[in-house]
Amino acid sequence: MNRKELINKIQEIHSMLCVGLDTDINRIPQFLKDNYDDPIFEFNKRIIEHTKDKCVAYKFNIAFYESMGPKGWVSLERSLAIIPDDIFTIADAKRGDIGNTSKLYARTFFETYNFDSITVSPYMGSDSLEPFYGYDDKWVIILGLTSNKGSQDFQMQKLQDGREVYKKVIERCVDFGDQTNTMFVVGATQADYIKEVRSIIPDHFLLMPGIGKQGGDLKSSLEFGLNEDYGLLINSSRGIIYSDSSAQFDKSAGLSAQKLNDSIRDHVSF
Amino acid sequence: MNRKELINKIQEIHSMLCVGLDTDINRIPQFLKDNYDDPIFEFNKRIIEHTKDKCVAYKFNIAFYESMGPKGWVSLERSLAIIPDDIFTIADAKRGDIGNTSKLYARTFFETYNFDSITVSPYMGSDSLEPFYGYDDKWVIILGLTSNKGSQDFQMQKLQDGREVYKKVIERCVDFGDQTNTMFVVGATQADYIKEVRSIIPDHFLLMPGIGKQGGDLKSSLEFGLNEDYGLLINSSRGIIYSDSSAQFDKSAGLSAQKLNDSIRDHVSF
Fold first, then answer.
1. CA-based, 20 to 30 A from A170: which of A122, A214, B77, B112?
2. Distances in Å between the alpha carbon of B237 and those of A87, A268, B204, B226, B254?
3. What count of Cα atoms within 13 Å lies in the side-chain half-sphere of residue A21?
């Protein structure tokens, strides 16, 4: 999916919502496990059915599928297949390795699974990220300033020129991608820093986790994060998909997505 | 596997060699693809057969298996099953995410696949690494100073106190693990810095890629990296498994492993 299509979709349904499919076998309703061979897929199918008109992106947290062994990857593939073509898909995999290995990761997520995007970890530097580029209409989503407490440990450390490591990452990464093929992860728990991120990359999309369970501040995140093309994908995972553990979980997920959309719309004019 | 068992194994066979199973479907001999349903496993089986008395560890580069779709994970599982119990196994996965996700990655590699260790990326900080701890006789192998050119981009950047980012990573990570459950990746291409790494962590094992195709300097790496318990796992992947593309590839792999062991023995007294 290209940038124009993504922006059009946001405009069309008045939503910047990304639903995170962190589907955990230990947290899905028992009746799905009792009655279906592939309960992970059945859960996702129902969540997708009730949220697909309310979000512009789905983020698959690869850890959850991988933990199921080979059959988890089958569940992933089947779930991907039922996502409408005009919804952006994210492989939240946080990969990154030496060039010949990153090339394989790109092949996996862009070719084998045909995701629109993959999240990558920048620690190993430029030659670990470059292999993810060069695919038409595919996106690289680089960890910038993450939503967790541990972001303080290294990302927020100051370099000798006074800039934090995460800023160096964002500035360096702009060298090999641009706003048509690169996004950055910036946590909504980091509202104070979003303004600074925007001063470096006014035009890029930010993938923003941390709303909901992680306690991020939606209002400030929108205030500082929005740009002329919206420029944000606001992710919620557990807050949506596990909003109810009954057989009505799917309807509740739809309502939670709607509620988050409404909160976003309080601050955004589409 | 615990530290004592690993050291005993090194002592017993006079080897610190780790063979990297970066098994690429595009690089394995045609006859395996023509005659077997699972050519990746068949390749690994033959490599393992000819190297298992010459190495103390096998490192599976997860990217290569993942790129094959669900069947790649079956190949991985089958290959793992034929590795002798007294050989250390590494899931080279470079994972790392917020706590609840890292927990899943730990579950995947330590429980579903029963690896002895996993490589992790420290960018997201302490709470992304902690979930990998707490398993008996399992190891966390943290990226320190990697072997690729891109290690200059962020790892080698100097912080305000004059230390490089990679040193901060190593120093911080020592807080939640010790030499009985933590190793660090330090590239053999970084021989000049190994001495500095050793000044911070004299006792830890280092997993050392970069010998062979990547051009690392074996002699200096050993000179600066060895400690009283050996303290090194020297990895070679492509240099061993692809040393010959004929039907004799497995014998050639064994010879290449032998040759690297001989080079190491020139500098180490076991």
1. A214
2. 39, 52, 22, 21, 12
3. 30
The Cα B173–Cα A228 span in angstroms is 41
Sequence spans of domains, chain B:
3-265
Least Cα separation, residue A269 to chain B (angstroms):
32
CB contact A115 to B (< 8 Å) = no
- Residues A211, A237: contact at Cβ < 8 Å? no
Residue range B249-269: average pLDDT?
96
Cβ of residue A63 closer than 8 Å to a chain B Cβ: yes
pLDDT in tens, B151-166: 999 999 999 999 999 9
Buried b vs exposed e over B152-167: b needs ≥16 C-beta within 10 Å? ebbbbbebeeeebbbb
Rounded distance, CA B186 to CA B205, Å? 10
Give the separation between CA B15 and CA B53, rounded to whole angstroms. 9
Contact B98 A67 (CB under 8 A): no
CA dist A263 → A56, A194, B231 (Å): 16, 19, 55
Tally of CB atoms within 10 A around B219: 12
B94 catalytic per annotation: yes
Tokens at residue A73, please? 């990857």
Q: Which of A94, A103, A138, A158 is catalytic?
A: A94
Q: What is the CATH number of domain A3-265?
A: 3.20.20.70
Q: Tens digits of per-residue pLDDT, B83-127? A: 999 999 999 999 999 999 999 999 999 999 999 999 999 999 999
For residue B139, list its beta bridge partners. B117
Q: At A232, give phi and psi (nearest 5°).
A: -135, 140
The residue type at B31: F
Q: What ipTM score was computed for the predicted complex, to two decimals? A: 0.95
A250, B115, B130 from B181: Cα distances, Å: 42, 13, 12
The answer to whether the CB of B237 falls within 8 A of the CB of B61 is yes
Mark A74-107 as b/e (b = at least 16 C-beta within 10 Å).
Answer: bbbbebbeebeeebbbbbbbbbbbbbbbbbbbbb
Per-residue DSSP letter, A184: E
**Alpha helix ranges (H) inside chain A:** 3-13, 30-35, 39-51, 62-66, 70-81, 99-106, 126-129, 165-173, 191-200, 218-225, 238-241, 249-265
Task: Please give the Cα distance from B71 to B77 (Å, whole number).
Answer: 10
